[in-house]
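Annotated sample (chain length 323).
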Amino acid sequence: MSGMARSKSGRVARFLQLSERMQCRLFLILGLWLALALPGVAQDQDPTGINPLPEVPLSQLSDPGNSVLGQAALAVRPNDWKHAETPHFILHFFRNFVAAQAAVELEYYYQTVSSELHQDTSTWERKSHVYIFENQADWQVFQKSAQLDPWTGGIHSEGNLFIVRDPAYKFEGRSLGHETAHLVLYRFFGAAIPLWLNEWYAENSSIRFYAGLERQRGYNMRPHSAVITASNYIPIASLTSMATYPDDVVQVSIFYQESEKLVAFLRAQSTEGFVTFMDALSHGSRLDTALWKGFGARFATVDDLDREFADYAQRKYQPLAGN
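Output written by the structure step:
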């Protein structure tokens, strides 16, 4: 092994140690949330074992919210919605125990993603609205009125979340973490982040942080993702030129899978570089310029990145630096 390789290996090892300590601290915070729920709430236990949220009339919320999608959501069974606030969110829901569980996860994901991206959450004054549906029938009514794609299982829009949570399940997969990542990116990098990068990061972070949640529940779960075959592989130049989602459902799946692995690959080079790369793209840099700002001469051209990443994309998930 060359001196340069040993130096790089040492940096990666030190980063992994720091990353592990950061995640341990965050998981301890999560444990406290799970045990105590939110400060100031009543002590009556709900069916999930988490204390209920203090409900607030819509007119008394710190921000009632008046987005077009928010109004469309509240128009579904309008007399049944309830409302509450947490440190960073305003929740609209039908049953309290569903919202209380979601609130624990929302705050955890929000703090985790913000910390990883080195963003100061205190600089954002307004809270995000979260609209929690409990069944597919209501969600489909909302989908139709909001003109959403039929495969949409949750959506982030202008700093607000619209999700479906089945009351029968305490933890419901990666969807909430994925959408919360979109929200944090929107807050701190704005709406100019390209679609492909937005989905890259949201998918990758949801895989990693949901695995952490599952480990807290006692499961031996590690991050994993799909293997991209040579026939399905989308060259980076084509992937990053997509301004909208593919029309074909199968291609949508490939788009998500490959983009997630590209984030894992780039973050493995340098987490600081990745944040710089993301910031550059959000401010209008071309892909090759953003790569240079974030990673210097590591990738001289987009083609160089493509050749190296194509091999990684076709291998099983490997926990690299920061994963």
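Annotation: Confidence is low (pLDDT under 50) at residues 1-48, 219-223, 318-323.
Annotation: The chain has two domains: 30-191, 223-323.
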